């Protein structure tokens, strides 16, 4: 169930996934499937349902959920290459959040290694995302953010803000640091002169 005040969580549960009904559904055929010819939805019907409804019905053994199309083999093959270049946002804006929720479905077909796949995907993309956030221009940021999921985009934005804040701190302290270095240098030179003066040998007349 979605967190009551979390808009992203609610939107993630609106994402659809394919399901196959185990039982006949009476009087809701056209409501669940607009292409259905009768009021009743027969057992074995394949219908795309939002996650929240598929989750509710699967716990009552009324249907069997399947992995969404974007989590099938084609995407996994793409991510084995340049993972950071793959447009996950186009597949699903809430890629990780929905994936996490899918892992909670005990009857989900093809979910055996889903949690490991999600973790590996995030790990491989996070490294490049963090590096890019520190060096990219505004133009690059706009282009790069188009391939990030909502979760990745939030982390990317925070990392970039943190990098800029650190740069501002360095520049604001540069004058103070520079003056301290110069002052310490003069102090060392003065102490060196004083040391030489005290150790100068006395020449008798």
Summarize the structure in words:
One of its GO terms (cellular component) is GINS complex. InterPro entries: GINS_A (IPR021151), GINS_bundle-like_dom_sf (IPR036224), GINS_Psf3 (IPR010492), GINS_Psf3_sf (IPR038437), PSF3_N (IPR055221). Residues 5-57 form the DNA replication complex GINS protein PSF3 N-terminal domain. Keywords: DNA replication, Nucleus. This is Subunit Psf3 of DNA replication GINS complex. Helix 6 runs antiparallel to helix 7. This protein has 205 residues and is mostly helical. The mean pLDDT is 81. The protein has nine helices and three strands. The protein has a three-stranded antiparallel β-sheet, covered by helices on one side. It has helices at 7-12, 29-32, 51-58, 73-79, 88-91, 95-102, 114-135, 138-144, 150-198, and strands at residues 16-21, 46-50, 63-65. The N and C termini lie far apart (101 Å).
At a glance:
The protein has 205 residues and is mainly α. It contains nine helices and three strands, in the order αβαβαβαααααα.
Share in β-strands: 5-15%
Average pLDDT across residues?
81
* Count of DSSP H/I helices: 9
Structural class by SSE content: mainly alpha
Biggest sheet: strand arrangement: 2-1-3
Q: Kindly state the percentage of residues in helix.
A: 55-70%
Number of strands: 3
Quaternary state of the chains: single chain
Low-confidence stretches: none
How is this fold's topology laid out?
Elements (H helix, E strand, L loop, with lengths): L6 H6 L3 E6 L7 H4 L13 E5 H8 L4 E3 L7 H7 L8 H4 L3 H8 L11 H22 L2 H7 L5 H49 L7
Antiparallel strand pairs: 1-2, 1-3
Helix pairs in contact: 6-7, 7-9
């Amino acid at each position: 169930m979605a967190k009551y005040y979390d808009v992203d969580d609610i939107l993630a549960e609106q994402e659809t996934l394919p399901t196959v009904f185990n039982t006949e559904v009476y009087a809701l055929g056209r409501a669940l499937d607009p292409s259905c010819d009768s009021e009743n939805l027969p057992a074995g019907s394949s219908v795309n349902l939002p996650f929240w409804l598929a989750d509710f019905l699967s716990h009552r053994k009324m249907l069997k959920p399947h992995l969404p199309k974007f989590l099938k083999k084609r995407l996994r093959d793409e991510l084995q290459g340049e993972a950071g270049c793959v447009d996950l946002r186009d597949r699903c804006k809430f890629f990780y959040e929905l994936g996490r929720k899918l892992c909670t479905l005990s009857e989900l077909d093809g979910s055996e290694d889903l949690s490991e796949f999600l973790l590996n995907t995030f790990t491989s993309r996070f490294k490049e995302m963090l590096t890019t956030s520190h060096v990219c221009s505004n133009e690059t940021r706009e282009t790069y953010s188009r391939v990030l999921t909502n979760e990745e985009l939030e982390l990317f934005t925070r990392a970039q803000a943190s990098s800029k804040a650190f740069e501002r701190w360095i520049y604001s302290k540069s004058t103070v640091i520079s003056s301290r270095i110069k002052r310490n240098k003069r102090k060392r030179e003065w102490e060196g002169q004083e040391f030489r003066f005290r150790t100068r040998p006395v020449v008798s007349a």
